[in-house]
Write a structure and sequence with these properties.
Order of helices and strands: HHEEEEEEEHEHEHHEHEHEHEEE
Oligomer: single chain
Distance between the termini: 47 Å
Number of strands: 15
CATH topology: Glucose Oxidase, domain 1
Largest sheet: 9 strands, mixed
Number of domains: 1
Length: 310
C-alpha cells in the first residue's frame, strides 16, 4: 500500500532536505544557535529543576507490542567485590539490557524511513544490522539544550480530568489554544513539549491504558511546527501521534513527516506532570531545557533524562 496523496502533499510543504546542505545529519537542531541558547538561559528565574524522565525499570512502559523493545533488564555483575585483593576497596557494578526507545527517549532522524529514504534523501539501506545508522545516528544529535515551551493541551482546553481522551488528535488549533492559554509564543530553535496527560495512566499502574488507545499529534501538526522553525518536539505518550491512526491504514505519518521530511527529532514517554504543576503555579510556560542524548554510535534512538530549569 502506497502512502496517500494527502501525506505527500504535506511532505512537500514541510521538507527540509538540502536546507542545511547535502551532508547535513542533524536537521532542525541546526536552529539551536549560540544566540538561541543564550536567550534560553534568560528563561531561568528561580533555578527550580524539574526532572522529566520516567524511571528505568523492568516493569516499564513497554507492553510487548513492539518486538525487541524490551524494558530495562538490570543485573548486578559484581557486589562488594574486592577486585584488587582482600582488604582493598570493594566495588559494585551493574549492567543493563534495554531497547534504546524503551523509556523516556529521543528518536533519531533514522528511526523511520518511507519510500526507501531517510532524512536528506539518504537511502534507507544505509542502516545495517551490525553498524546501525551510518548517517544521522543519534550520536550526531549533540548538545540538545535550548528554550523549552510547554503546551499543556488539557489545561488549555479545560479538560476536567487533566487528561485528553484516547481518541483525541491534537490539532494546530489545540496548539494555538495552548500558546494563548500559556501566554507564550513558540519561536525558532525552541523545543516544544506537548502535554496530553496520557502518562497519568502509566503512573497509575495501567500500562495497557497508557499504550492503547492513545491521544497524540494529528497529521496536520507538522506544518505548525515547520512554520515556527521548532528544533524538536516531545510528548507524554507511547506513540507520539494519535493511535490508532486518524487516517485508516496510515501508520506513523507524523513520525515520517518529522524525522524523514523535516529532520526534526521527536521524543516519547516524557513525564510532564510535575512540569505542568510547576508552570501552572508560576504562570510561566517557558524554561531552559537540557535533554542531552546518550551518544550511541549508529543508534536510531536513545534514552534521555531531560531536566527543565524554571
Amino acid at each position: 500500500m502506497s502512502l496517500p496523496t494527502e501525506f505527500h502533499d504535506i511532505a512537500k510543504r514541510v521538507n527540509n532536505w538540502g536546507r542545511w546542505g547535502a551532508d547535513d545529519e542533524i536537521g532542525t537542531l541546526n536552529l539551536i544557535s549560540d544566540e538561541v541558547v543564550r536567550a534560553a538561559a534568560g528563561s531561568v528565574r528561580s533555578g527550580r529543576r524539574v526532572p522529566l524522565a520516567l524511571p528505568l525499570q523492568q516493569d516499564g512502559v513497554q507492553t510487548g507490542m513492539i518486538p525487541g523493545r524490551v524494558n530495562p533488564l538490570h543485573v548486578m555483575v559484581q557486589v562488594n567485590q574486592e577486585i584488587f585483593g582482600p582488604g582493598t576497596v570493594a566495588c559494585s557494578d551493574d549492567a543493563v539490557t534495554m531497547g534504546l526507545q524503551a523509556g523516556t527517549h529521543w528518536d533519531a532522524l533514522t528511526h523511520v524511513s518511507h519510500s526507501g529514504r531517510l532524512y536528506n534523501g539518504r537511502p534507507a539501506h544505509t542502516i545495517t544490522p551490525h553498524a546501525g545508522a551510518a548517517f544521522a545516528g543519534i550520536d550526531k544529535a549533540r548538545h540538545i539544550v535550548s528554550r523549552g515551551v510547554l503546551l499543556d493541551i488539557p489545561r488549555a482546553l479545560g479538560t476536567d480530568t487533566g487528561r485528553l481522551p484516547g481518541g483525541h488528535a491534537v490539532t494546530p488549533e489545540d496548539l494555538d489554544a495552548a500558546e494563548e492559554s500559556a501566554g507564550v509564543r513558540v519561536r525558532a530553535g525552541d523545543i516544544v513539549l506537548v502535554r496530553t496527560g496520557q502518562v497519568r495512566a502509566y503512573l497509575a499502574g495501567d500500562k495497557h491504558g497508557y499504550a492503547f488507545p492513545s491521544p497524540g499529534l494529528s497529521i496536520r501538526t507538522p506544518e505548525w511546527f515547520h512554520a515556527r522553525d521548532v528544533a524538536a518536539v516531545a510528548n507524554d505518550t507511547m506513540t507520539f501521534e494519535i493511535f490508532p491512526p486518524e487516517i485508516e491504514g496510515l501508520w506513523l505519518p507524523v513520525h515520517a513527516l518529522h524525522l524523514v521530511e523535516m529532520g526534526m527529532p521527536q521524543g516519547q514517554n516524557w513525564n510532564l506532570e510535575e512540569l505542568s504543576t510547576a508552570c501552572g503555579e508560576t504562570g510561566r510556560y517557558d524554561f531552559l531545557l537540557s535533554a542531552m542524548p546518550e551518544p550511541f554510535v549508529g543508534g536510531t534512538g536513545t534514552p534521555v533524562a531531560p531536566v527543565a530549569v524554571l
